[in-house]
Design a protein that fits this description.
The structure is a homodimer of 649-residue chains. In chain A, 37% of the residues lie in helices and 26% in strands. The first copy, chain A, has 649 residues and is of the alpha+beta class. A 9-stranded mixed beta sheet of chain A has the order 3-10-11-21-16-15-14-12-13, with helices on both faces.
Amino acid sequence: MSIFKHTTKLIHFYRPFLKSFSSMEKAHISKEGLVSRRADLEDLLKRRFYIMQSFGIYGGKAGLYDYGPPGCAIKANVEKIWRDHFVIEEDMLEISATNITPDIVLRASGHEEKFSDIMVNDVEKKEIVYRADHLIEEFIEETKTKQKDKLTPEKLARFDEILRRINEYKVNDIEEIIKELGIKSTKTGNALSKPYEFNLMFAIQIGPTGDSKGYLRPETAQGIFVNFRNLLEYNGGRVPFACAQLGIGFRNEIAPRGGLLRLREFGMAEIEHFVDPEDKSHPKFASYKDYALPLYHRHQQENGLDSVEMTLTQAISQKIINNETLAYFIARTHQFLIRVGIRPEGIRFRQHLGNEMAHYSQDCWDAEVLTSYGWVEVVGIADRSAFDLTRHTKYSKKDLVAARKFTQAKEIEVLEVKLAKPVIGKAFKAENKAIVEALENLDENTRKAAQEGLAQDKTWTLTLEDGRTFAITPDMMSFDLKKKRIMEEKFTPHVIEPSFGIGRIIYCSWEHSFKMRSKERTYLHIPPKIAPYKCSLLTVVTDPRFDPFVNKIVEGLKKYGISNKVDTTGQGIGKRYARTDEVGIPFGITIDHDTLEKETVTLREIDTTLQVRVPVNEIVDLVYNLSEETAKWEEVLKKYPQFTPSSQE
Amino acid sequence: MSIFKHTTKLIHFYRPFLKSFSSMEKAHISKEGLVSRRADLEDLLKRRFYIMQSFGIYGGKAGLYDYGPPGCAIKANVEKIWRDHFVIEEDMLEISATNITPDIVLRASGHEEKFSDIMVNDVEKKEIVYRADHLIEEFIEETKTKQKDKLTPEKLARFDEILRRINEYKVNDIEEIIKELGIKSTKTGNALSKPYEFNLMFAIQIGPTGDSKGYLRPETAQGIFVNFRNLLEYNGGRVPFACAQLGIGFRNEIAPRGGLLRLREFGMAEIEHFVDPEDKSHPKFASYKDYALPLYHRHQQENGLDSVEMTLTQAISQKIINNETLAYFIARTHQFLIRVGIRPEGIRFRQHLGNEMAHYSQDCWDAEVLTSYGWVEVVGIADRSAFDLTRHTKYSKKDLVAARKFTQAKEIEVLEVKLAKPVIGKAFKAENKAIVEALENLDENTRKAAQEGLAQDKTWTLTLEDGRTFAITPDMMSFDLKKKRIMEEKFTPHVIEPSFGIGRIIYCSWEHSFKMRSKERTYLHIPPKIAPYKCSLLTVVTDPRFDPFVNKIVEGLKKYGISNKVDTTGQGIGKRYARTDEVGIPFGITIDHDTLEKETVTLREIDTTLQVRVPVNEIVDLVYNLSEETAKWEEVLKKYPQFTPSSQE
């Protein structure tokens, strides 16, 4: 996530993306400029308590952040939009499962074995730990900077290879690279320990006796998988269906850095869309077939090219996106990101390369957003095949399947097995029971293999789950091909999983909406729908004659549920506007002396700072429509007379 | 929480509270009836996946429950109403802090020392554990039932005393009571271990090195206290102000029972209202002064009386409720509970007795709801004085204070201390530095005591924080009474804390809204605002000519954000109504053959099952108003023609 990786590319991308920004900000489009701009943003976020490192009075805690009042309101709004955009609009089911998760669930999911980062210690000062991949990355960047002209082309190529493949390396590879490059503990210069895996889940004991182990969930998805049966039944047995969950995920990061992007506790929103593996079409695909978006697919990445704009139909017909459902969710995600304030010029969908994907994954795309850190992954959209349900079936011994129903009976051929149990018993004695059970439960393909083997070679090898093998002979089993009429067929659904990092999305939205009038007057120009308060209500001076108007308007705002901030202090109005700007309040109503005579107020918009005069009777409706984004500021400017304050700002 | 404690009282209370229920349900008003009714409710909750024990495919996990689709929607709605009712309506600040909490925070709060239950083990089978108070309660109840006629009045009185005081007992008391009553391990008959304290917090390690210990928060409140400085600054330094937080709390219960009422992970909503200790009035108290509610105050409890209906003014003037702010929150809580479907007849506010309250607490009230478990605490509203801020000041060494600003300068007298440092240095040598620092930081009262002591006795004893004492003589320090003009005065705010158990409130709302048409047809008659889906849309039969109407109405419902369920299958309409009833959908639109001719649909209400005919053009608006509770069903019945289905239901 280092900004220094692709500086030129970053600046190249950032320029058009900032085209609507002020000229002052355009000067920022350089490596240093972007980092300095980020510092200004972080200063605003902290100063107005959007977000703050947790437990500050106790020195703060790395990787933990609290949302203050404006941040908390933005988070709630983003979550509401997510729920409207996905759960309500797509008729998804939604559940809320627990954070505490017994260990067996995360063993089944693979997290107990594989959810880890590689770590090394300082051999002398064991309390100094490093995340190995970060250490290697930093070493290479620093060497490149320090020894700029001295590095051979071979060395540079080797560095690039390591950086490119850093996520693939196993413990052994890391150990060799540390040796090869001669990396030491950066804080002390001491040697480093052998690298080892550190599991990123927080372990807990459930109950008092200590025999019940668990973890804080690393993702919300498992809560949906373990409820698959309940959900399928709730849905009347029908597939496809989708289930969503908003909640928290926990990762015990080794040494969190990257500000708000890498936290130990973070908001997530996940969807598990269960489909029939034989039919991954999507009923709403047709209305999105011409939807175009920037795809940074495998071929482009492997050939050093940029993302390309493509329609979903093109992507499907060229077999770039695996299936319609995956494509549909990619488009819907694109829309969602734009709705919450991320600029389309700064979004791309990057396909996972073959070596990045889990073996079971059919196809996987990350929504990435361009920020001062470079491209940041904010959503992952994967076709995970039947992996999760199959694993939970294995560990829970409960079938997690759906049924494909036929409108008329279907005739199928079933190869039935007949066992000569006395012969088997005589041959295997103690193992008799296990062998009979295994032979009775062979799946269709294995039955066919056994039939062929016995016919051709007069013997066939049975392998039990524990690995033991036994030679089966033709006198032990025979076969019978039967026709059967069935009305349904069971199958394990596949799952398409869009997984959203809510905190990351909010941070990216802030980076994209951060603006500066001057170094001292910064603000967030976020969409009204996610704004923490929709509107401020100020009086130009303190005057009791304004009270009835204040009360009337506040009552109206409350009735419509429009969150607002009232300030009737006599402070300079310009100072108060600056403050409401900092808190990201898009609209400001001001009651002035004309209000008393003409029953009109002024309405100001944060970004243009333009004001119009609006009758008191119309103001609440107007602000409601503006904050719901059913009216636009440009329309308001045309409809109402513009108001030029004498010397207010 | 045993139902058997106050059976007669329970039935007595439950009767009027059920007065509007059907006659079939009135038959349930007995101890057994209430328990059986609860089983029917739990059956519905499970069958329609409102809520389900977590990790069912792995055998389930005690104390953990997942909210399924309707439960999850109800939870989101209750939280939204809470936010509207408190945060928006009262202009509170809201934050979202982390669940992971460093140990020092929970040491400061007192949880590390005191947040525990007393536990005993079976001496032979150590894995069998009991929560001591539950074990004693069960033993007494069982003995009372089994030996009904044999118990002496003295014995019965002793039992009653133990039950009444069970929450006060310390480890030693519990040990003696177990001996006195001869209680054994109920599962084996073995002897019990010595009782000991078990801390109910889940411990975790933050980061990889193991030197950073933490806990999952047992309540959300601490996240607000540690942010006090940020919040005060955000609020422009003004007190009073309130900060709210919605989130999760964790308690590692010893052996959770009581269904949904005692969980290891639960939704909470807490408010910390910071006030000047010298002024606990509330600006909105005036509009609630005649608000009446049932107060079960100390005097009533101590004299075996019931709760009494009182206005806030009466409660304040009779010094029953400590202050206006506390009273105001009690009334607002009462309103909130009713808004989310709890019947007013089943609510009371119980004041904590002297022995229940923490030493620092000025006054504390629980909102209790009558259920089949008896009276259940769902909200605690406490005046916690300056306890929390003082403790965090002590542990963090950061002042957590606000300023009382004067409109004009105030003259005060300050006793200043002058130290003769050479004399002190000579007298105490090595301890010199610590003593000088202590003398320079004496508070006003200690300075006065020192002045008096030195004047009268020619010596005064200084006690350091570590307990060491030193004799101070008049040659070491002198005093000077100075007049000072100040514009402000620092103080540690007091805090009024209303703390809501969201899960418990939802469960109580379900108990109060559960209804039965017959044993097989049960449903939840919850307020439309918390209903999981506001409206169903059915077609009387499957017919493509209905499609345009379905699409038009669905579009309208979506536009207004009205959650809905569409069912155009040809199943019997009565069966479908029964299903929508079970999921708690208050209103049902049905498209029938008259829709084609007259462009009208029918609208059905869950509780009355009455239907009216409404023009298609008006239906979305009408359902919107009904689900927002701005229109009432009784009014709809008057306005629109009633529709009597021929044989639909």
